[in-house]
What we know:
The protein has 187 residues and is α+β, with helices and mostly antiparallel strands. Helices cover 28% and strands 42% of the residues.
Amino acid sequence: MKLGNDRTIIDERRLQAVIDHFDIREVIESYVHACDRGDRDATADVYHADSWDHHGPMQCDGHEFATRNTEAVMANWSSCNHLLGQSRVKVTGDVAGVETLFFASLTREEDGTTMLDQMVGRYIDRFERRDGVWRIKDRRTISEWSSSGPIGTDYLAGHLFLRGERSGADLSYAALGLTRGCSRIDH
């Protein structure tokens, strides 16, 4: 494809690679948004029905993982937040190998003390594109390190910052045009 008067020629394979990388990263971002908001259906949506997730103590198909993980996060932690780092993506046809770095932080109450649980790790994923849609076929979660400790005084307490909601009432749903059950942004 030619752009303008003898300007850059875009190789269709490279353009498809950019689209594939974008779509795969959207799935990864949809996963953490759903996990952080406690949205089981949106978490399940990123997995193929015949997927597998090896997530530390939880080793099960992706849809069961979505249920078990959402229940555990909602029951045991008062907040859950993921920060994603770089993703390395290698697409071969309708299959992709992906490595994504993450930082997860969760808060919980323990004997009247707010605890902070943190983990830095990597998702090692095999994605498959079926019917034009990328989803996770196999996920292996690597823990690089984790830590738990009490949180000190909240220096922002009483400063009227808005708080995140673990429901469809979270401001991100309206801002991104999302509905409960799907964290994918349509483009």
